[in-house]
Amino acid sequence: MSRSPRPKVIDLFAGAGGFSLGAARAGFELAAAIDLDPHAFETHKKNFVNSNHARRNIKKLSGDQLRHIAGINGHRLDGLIGGPPCQGFSTMGWRRKNDARNKLFYHFFRLVSEVKPLFYIAENVPGILDEKYDVMRQESFRLVERDYHMLPPFELSAADFGVATDRTRVFFVGWAKDAGFSLDHDFAVADGLKKTVVSVAFSGLPQRIDPRWRDERHLWQQVVKPRSRFAEAINRIVDGIGDEDALRRFDDKAEVSGFLATKHTPEVVERFNKVEPGKMDPISKFPRLKWDGTCPTLRAGTANDRGSYQAARPIHPSRPRVITTREAARLQGFPDWFVFHPTKWHSFRQIGNSIPPLMAEGVLKRFL
Q1: Alpha carbon distances (Å) from 313 to 142, 183, 255, 287, 348
Q2: Among 346, 49, 118, 25, residue whose Cα is nearest residue 33
């Protein structure tokens, strides 16, 4: 098979599109995005208008079907990327050894073995390296070890890629033995950019969120476009990426979505007022952000089949409220023009489940 004129990747478990956006900014064409969650699927379609999309169960997807969805028949895929669901491995969850979602890690490698891209990248939480998952990882690696060189799993922090969060992820990287290139351990070294603190990430966003901003009429608000390396990095536009209306509103009026208010009782407001920056509210266990610090890992909460539990949301550094979804998106390094689900619950889940785009870009650009 020949290579496509422009390098192409397929994003499995694409979610809202953190990995996809990082790939596009690194210089890849997103040939296809696959996800099963209906809300994440629609969000991805809205932001990646030129890519092929399929709402499919990865367990039931074959390599031939995946190639057909992506429209790459006759060409060799450059990269297969994805972040299999991490809840079964996360130290923040139950970490059940037999969690059905854990098997999706295996199916990622099964599709690598069937599609045979030039390289693959899978990312997950550090908990996946626990010895209780040794057999699962080994079974997955055996599917590709004949045809691929593999780096040992390595950890990276999003903060080292200029993101305002200490989110740490484990990466599994391999490249085909006939790829014509080679990687070494330097690949696993982060960019080491200056850390972005919360004050820089929140620059230009309104601190006062009117409690009456409770429906979609108030979802969009005007911001002051910040001038910083961080703002330039996250808001860089790539041809073919972004919802046309959202891009226009951001460019013409500096209007940005994600400002629905969370209603707090007077008792909660009083309690939040007493929480020092960097400390945790003793009842909700919500951490309070520090202007000169970074954010801990944003949590996603659970889906409706797991109880629909809301994620713990950080408290604003100087206001007695939890952060908005736009503030969460800034912490995760998403562009201001990127649109999420209009509800707070789904949008927080989409942001919390995503790899920071700047982190994904930093890893993927090493293949070009």
Answers
A1: 39, 39, 24, 8, 9
A2: 49
Catalytic member of 33, 70, 86, 359:
86
12 DSSP β-pair partners: 34, 82
How far apart, in whole angstroms, are the C-alpha atoms of residue 223 and residue 204?
6
Rounded Cα distance between 299 and 353, Å, is 7
Contact 237, 248 (CB under 8 A): no
Contact 87, 353 (CB under 8 A): no
Does residue 86 have an active-site annotation? yes
Give CA angle at 140 (138, 146), nearest 5°.
Answer: 90
Domains of the chain from N-terminus onward = 2-193+356-367 (3.40.50.150), 198-352 (3.90.120.10)
Whole-model pTM above 0.85?
A: yes
Asked if 346 contacts 39 with a C-beta cutoff of 8 angstroms, the reply is yes
Contact 22, 79 (CB under 8 A): no
Note whether 323 and 282 are within 8 A (CB).
no
Among 47, 255, 82, residue whose Cα is nearest residue 173:
82
pLDDT digits (tens, 9 = 90+) for 115-153: 999 999 999 999 999 999 999 999 999 999 999 999 999
Give the closest residue to 83 by CA, choosing from 183, 204, 202, 170: 170
pLDDT tens digits, one per residue of 280-312: 999 999 999 999 999 999 986 544 544 445 667
